[in-house]
Design brief:
The protein is of the alpha/beta class. The protein is built from eight helices and nine strands.
């Protein structure tokens, strides 16, 4: 049996299982890649909301990173919730040193409620981390916090390709805008009518990272991730897991 490529997620733990580390590892498994993880925070949360957050010390985040990277042949990396400037700086140091290949940055800086999830200046992402990434994956509220609602403007500021996700927009189609600062193109799919959308951002970025680890080019990895998340939303649309916004079906099959 062929040894699977390794993908690393650097993110927070979701005790409800729908987002964060848990969503990433499920997505990796669904794509046939081997998932490793570095946990940046423990959260007490469920489908209704976040009850509490306990950050992991930055030096222990560094210890986890070094333990994984000195042993496993990591082919792609994605970040989720980093939480504070010290943790982001640690991750940026590893990226600058060339130790985080095919880096996909999901800028988890603001909750759906509008509450900030990063205890620092969101511009830290653009200044320290995204210049070493192959992709930045903000949704519309996150792009506003980062200082640009236009994918091309954000790509130029970030120094990397941006996919501005359209899940928070209106309309029958879910359209994501992709820009590398010069060229603009779109990921278009029918919008799924469901309350179960918890963890879609984590899942999408994890799917892109899995595709890159498997040798896909960025454009193909993005298109396949869009198809995957659309199917996962549709397959889990009638689930009733919890009293709030439930998870998607990470293990759906086309």
């Amino acid at each position: 049996m062929t040894t699977p490529p390794v993908v690393l997620t650097i993110a927070g733990s979701d005790s409800g299982g729908g987002a964060g580390i848990q969503a990433d590892l499920k997505t990796f498994a669904a794509h046939g890649v081997f998932g490793a993880s570095v946990i940046t925070a423990l959260t007490a949360q469920n489908t209704v909301g976040v009850k509490g957050v306990h950050a992991v010390p930055a030096d222990f985040v560094a210890a986890q990173l070094d333990a994984v990277l000195c042993d496993l042949d990591v082919r792609a990396v994605k970040t989720g919730m980093l939480g504070d400037p010290a943790i982001l700086a640690v991750v940026a140091d590893f990226a600058r040193a060339g130790r985080l290949p095919n880096l996909v940055v999901d800028p988890v800086v603001v909750a759906t409620s509008g509450d900030l999830l990063y205890d620092g200046d969101p511009a830290d992402y653009l200044r320290l981390l995204t210049p070493y990434a192959v992709l930045l994956t903000p949704n519309i509220p996150e792009s506003r916090v980062l200082g640009a609602e236009d994918a091309t403007a954000l790509a130029l500021a970030a120094g990397t390709t941006v996919v501005l996700k359209g899940g928070h927009a209106e309309g029958e189609r879910s359209v994501d805008t992709v820009s590398d600062g010069r060229r603009v193109w779109y990921l278009d799919a029918e919008r799924v009518d469901t309350r179960n959308s918890h963890g879609t951002g984590c899942t999408f970025s994890a799917a892109v990272a899995a595709g890159l680890a498997g040798g896909l080019g960025l454009e193909t990895a993005l298109r396949e991730a869009k198809s995957y998340i659309t199917g996962a939303l549709a397959s889990g649309a009638r689930w009733r897991l919890g009293r709030g916004s439930g998870p998607v079906d990470h293990f759906w099959r086309p």
